[in-house]
Write a structure and sequence with these properties.
245 residues, alpha/beta, Rossmann fold, binds adenosine-5'-triphosphate, binds magnesium ion
């Protein structure tokens, strides 16, 4: 498959009138790119990712996924290609147990039960939670919920991955496994996070946001090494860089 990119032009959005949350956002994220989205609390990172999967269509400007304009008519088609992990795992999980949640998307696409099972088992194994298969969602820990959320998108074998704070609540081993998983994913991925070490390890390019705008975008190495820039926008150097100084 080719040309699986995201193109955003002059995106403006507000939840409530007269309170702009995203202002004139434009960027192109290409086929095999890995793009980090960083910025202080409330700058609009989650809102941006939500708009990219059509969770709110009341925006101005244009969003195109693989040249398909994002609108009501194209929503199902786009969601089939784009896997999105919510910042809050409770918003993602809605089935009674782990297996049912991870099996939901492939089943929804009308795949055979055999294929649904294969994909579900593969996704559970990829995030090392096969042992949680039968567990009710409400009995999971915070980190376990996050891993299940990630498995729910892996089972749909997405062409684009969008993740909002994926490393939150993960222990060091699961965090490292997720970094490896993401680095093995060869298509486009966009990751919003305050974990700048995670961004450093997974994203070649980084977009810095403040007050609903893109302040700077460029190579992750350049942006995350720029202590003055980060500090000016309420962030700090990744810990790994502090240690090296
Ligand atoms: N459902 C909503 N209704 C009204 N305002 C909202 C809603 N969701 C978010 N906002 C506001 O939009 C702004 C951007 O929020 P958003 O969640 O996108 O920020 P963020 O950059 O992801 O922050 P964080 O780092 O805390 O996750 C904030 O001012 C927030 O209060
Ligand atoms: Mg957020």
């Amino acid at each position: 498959m080719s040309h699986i990119h995201i193109c955003v032009e002059h995106l403006n959005f507000s939840y409530e009138k007269k309170q702009p949350v995203l202002q004139d956002i434009s960027f192109f994220a290409g086929e095999q790119e890995s793009v980090g989205i960083i910025g202080a609390n409330g700058v609009g990172k989650s809102t941006l990712l939500k708009l990219l999967v059509g969770l709110n269509l009341n925006f101005e400007g244009s969003i195109r996924v693989e040249d398909i304009p994002l609108e009501k008519r194209t929503l199902a088609k786009i969601r089939e290609r784009v896997g999105y992990v919510f910042q809050d795992a409770d918003s993602q999980l809605f089935m009674p147990n782990v297996y049912e949640d991870v099996a939901f998307a492939p089943r929804n696409y009308g795949l055979s039960e055999e294929e649904v099972e294969r994909r579900t088992e593969t996704a559970l194994a990829a995030v090392h939670i096969a042992h949680l298969r039968e567990k009710p969602i409400y009995k999971l820990s915070g980190g376990e919920k996050k891993m299940v959320s990630i498995a729910t998108i892996l089972s749909m074998t997405p062409d684009i991955i969008l993740m909002d704070e994926p490393s939150v609540a993960l222990d060091p081993k699961n965090r490292r496994n997720l970094i490896r998983l993401l680095n093995e994913f060869s298509h486009l991925k966009m990751i919003a996070s305050h974990d700048l070490d995670f961004i450093w390890d997974t994203c070649q390019r980084t977009i810095l946001m403040a007050e609903g705008k893109i302040i700077r975008e460029g190579k992750t190495e350049e942006i995350l090494r720029d202590g003055e820039l980060l500090e000016a926008y309420g962030l700090e150097l990744p810990l790994s860089l502090y240690e090296k100084r």
